[in-house]
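Inputs:
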Amino acid sequence: MAADLTAELEQLHAAAFGWALSCCGWDRTAAEDVLQASYLKLLDGRARFDGRSSFRTFVLGVIARTAREARRRSALRRWLPLASVVLGPEAEDGRPDPATALARADDTTRLVRALERLSARQRQVLHLVFYEDLTIAEAAAVAGISVGTARTHYERGKAALRKLLEKEQE
Amino acid sequence: MIERDDHQLRKGFEALRREDAACTPPFGATVAAARARQATVPRHRALRLAAAAVVAVVAVVVVSISRERDGVRRQIDLATVRWHAPTDFLLKLPGDELLRSVPQLGSRGLDRRTL
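Outputs:
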């Protein structure tokens, strides 16, 4: 059973890492932290697959939730001086670290820069549809929003991304 | 136009996926790092819980001390603010002392008044 789960996770590993990168604003260290925490949740049974969606959608949803929790903890640490005592030391500051930034081609750098300027929801939906090859309904399930809202974010996000890419090329 | 743009976006994301895949950490190493992290968590958690308990106890002590102080001040305030209305005398009934005391049957005073 555990071996099956591990094998399934291994198959999804590259997609899961890409999604973790997107959730963490392409900060590699933060993405690795989130991915490790997500795998722990899945392997310990704290996050259980109940078959209501595909396994891929479920895993991406767990990663999205874990990234949200990490962001909340990070924000709490920033605002409450005693929170770091209770929550432990901070692993990342939420911004891409130049030392751990990924080496990218010019076109991809432009795409990442443009994606960073979109709203978080638009970025998530576009990433899930174009990068992870999910349908809009599956993307909505991963992001925890309604299909209608996901479709709106998809259309507006695409339009905004096209404009930003055109500006980048000029 | 939109179809072509979608195709371009898709191509861009494919390139992004290829680059990410090239630098994805090995699955085994990620799981091993997660397990190692899990092993250190209970000790950290105990320390954090102890710190949280200390903070909670200090907060309770501070709140209880400040409440006690407030309580003393409130008593003094109530004692100094006793107010009498100028029309209080209207509420005084003639012979109302009879209503506040229980008459004793057979006593001389009662006999005189009732006979």
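Remarks. The helical segments of chain B are 2-22, 27-80, 96-100, 108-114. DSSP finds four helices and no strands in chain B.
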